[in-house]
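Continuing the series of single-chain predictions for the mutant panel. This is the parent chain; the variants come on the following pages.
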Amino acid sequence: METFLEILREVLKGIMRETTAFFFRKNILENKKTTQRRRKQKGGSRNK
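Parent structure:
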C-alpha cells in the first residue's frame, strides 16, 4: 500500500510540474511584449 501511494505521489508531482511549466511558458514567455504600443491620435479638433 505504501509503495502504491509513493508511486501515485510521484506521478502527481510530475503532472503538476508539467502543467506549471506549460502555463508558465504560455503566459509569461510567449506573451511578452517588447514595447508598449501607443494608440494613434486622431487629427483635427474635437468639439465637446
